[in-house]
Amino acid sequence: MPTALSKPVARRADAVRNVERILDASIVCLQRRPSATMAEIAEEAGLGRVTLYGHFASRPALIDAVVSRVLAQGEEMLAAVDLKGDPRTALAQLIRNSWQLVDQSRSIISAAEAELSPARIRQLHDGPAARVEALVERGRADGQFRKDMPTSWLVAVLHQILHGAGGEVASGRLDPADAPERIIDTVLSVLDAR
């Protein structure tokens, strides 16, 4: 016989499952079309719009949660990248792995840029940026990377180059297979000590 204490636990488990369904459906819908509506996402999740809005009051709130989830999953993958050894080699490998994530998430990035402020997007990228900052600092200490510009600026440039390549791929002007090496060449030329 259920007790009064067991009911909130069951509802909480249902709520967690619903949020997971909504986030999964959002990723599917946004990868198809960055402007997917809340109604389309609710339908894909097999839930009503009332349930969706009960968890995410607005499309920007949902997009924020989707970007957070995608970045968290990306962080798991990037955490496995060996960043020891030569900073240039380590950065090249980090860029290759990061490109895979950017390429897979182009539509979600597009949706985020339409719904979230640049400040929020930067804030969501703080975790991945910290890894790159540490690597750039190590390259600067080794004399391989330039010291005449702030590390934060160099990391911001790398971020823009990655996302710019995503835009070029989306427009058909860059083959996704060529993107990683183009990004690496561009970034390393910007970072090279002078």
UniProtKB/TrEMBL annotation:
This is TetR/AcrR family transcriptional regulator. PROSITE patterns: HTH_TETR_2 (PS50977). Residues 37-56 bind DNA. Keywords: DNA-binding, Transcription, Transcription regulation. It comes from Microbacterium invictum. Transmembrane segments: none annotated. InterPro entries: Homeodomain-like_sf, HTH-type_TetR-like_transc_reg, HTH_TetR, Tet_transcr_reg_TetR-rel_C_sf. Residues 16-74 form the HTH tetR-type domain.
